[in-house]
Amino acid sequence: MEMKSRIQEKFKLLYGTEGDLFSSAGRINLIGEHTDYNGGYVFPGAIDKGIIIEIRLNGTDKVHAYSLDYDEYVEFGLNEEDKPQQSWARYIFGVCRETMKRGGKVEGFDTVFAGDVPLGAGLSSSAALESTFAYALNYLFNNMIDKFELAKIGQSTEHNYCGVNCGIMDQFASIFGKKGSLIRLNCKTLEYKYFPFDPEAAGYKLVLIDSCVKHELASSAYNKRRQSCENACAAIKKNHPDVEFLSDAKRVWLDEVRDQIPEEDFLRAEYVIGEVQRVLDVCDALERGDYETVGEMMYETHFGLSRLYEVSCEELDFLNKLARKCDVTGSRVMGGGFGGCTINLVRKDLYDSFISTATTQFTEKFGHAPKVYDVVISDGARKIE
Ligand code: ADP
Ligand code: MG
Question: Which residue from 53, 124, 125, 210 has its CB within 8 A of the most atoms of ligand 1, so it is best to mutate?
Fold first, then answer.
């Protein structure tokens, strides 16, 4: 049965009535990796996988929530000390609390929800969950909180109730996502702009290949990469005082300080400065409908992440090389690195052979099959009529 119908059936069974339906989405990031904390651009879009909730105010001060996917029912109050045990319920509780902290009204409600974003695969199922509830509560209580603040409600939920110190990109994409568009977000100024992205219409598909590995290194390496970027930035700033973030620096300014910083820091900074430019180049290419250039930039990003920034791994490099061999237009590791997915832009006529080659050869080499997710850029948070 369709997800929406299963939700409605369960809602009726539990609460004896009907509520309103809302939805929001997971996200991909086409290009612009490890640029956020350097004040650069990211370029995400919402996808056709998300969360659907049915919800109705219940006139009490309690939330009644049922997760279809976990087959679990939870009740909680809305005061700080009412924080539920179940981790999925903490996302909902956190969104309620963060809405209230911003002066929004929240009272008791009944809800049933489900989703089809694979958990922990780098598509941000958690942001989809937060954004759906943030949007729905804002609508139902008529709180008039603006969209950017709704994204921040999701981000603060992760920080304050889920122990994840994330940036704003995931929730931003989930709230602002629009069918057929990617959104270039300037992480320093928070200015954003929509660009057309409709690969299907141009004869391509967007597909993620999930290596299903997560190497331990990720969080310690992340801190080290940030430190390298700060070092390089500080050295450049001595010559160019206006430079606040590494993304403000020109490539030649980095060359000026090459012998003043460790070679490793130089390579990290070289990647970041290149990546900021690549986002701009991809946006230009999309305005011309030039998907071949987009793909070439994705390969350049992969090279940078693998050789300069050194956050790839054997499995992801293998998938990237395989994509090249199969004439895939663009391919790169997506997300923080050390595991997770590659994102691939592939011509429709090559799709089947790429997927079967990648699946067979990856399984042969690593002893387990990768997962394959087709994605279409779709609308973010919304009410379903
Ligand atoms: P991701 O990278 O997918 O965001 P996270 O670990 O940040 O991975 O978030 C996954 C968590 O979000 C799950 O453990 C669960 O608590 C919650 N979640 C996401 N999707 C669902 C869902 N469909 N039903 C219940 N909880 C969900
Ligand atoms: Mg998450």
Answer: 125
Q: Would the CA dihedral through 188, 190, 193, 195 be positive or negative?
A: positive
- Do the Cβ atoms of 90 and 162 come closer than 8 Å? yes
Distances, alpha carbon 23 to alpha carbons 3, 19, 47, 167, 343, in Å: 11, 13, 12, 22, 24
- Measured in Å, residue 125 CA sits from the centre of ligand 1 at 5
| pLDDT digits 0-9 by tens, 328-348 | 999 999 998 899 999 999 999
pTM of the predicted model over 0.85: yes
Contact 55, 384 (CB under 8 A): no
Q: How far apart are CA 259 and CA 116, in angstroms?
A: 50
**Amino acid present at 64:** H
Residue with tokens 């931003």: 172
In terms of phi and psi (left: phi > 0; alpha: psi -120 to 50; beta: otherwise), the region of 186 is beta
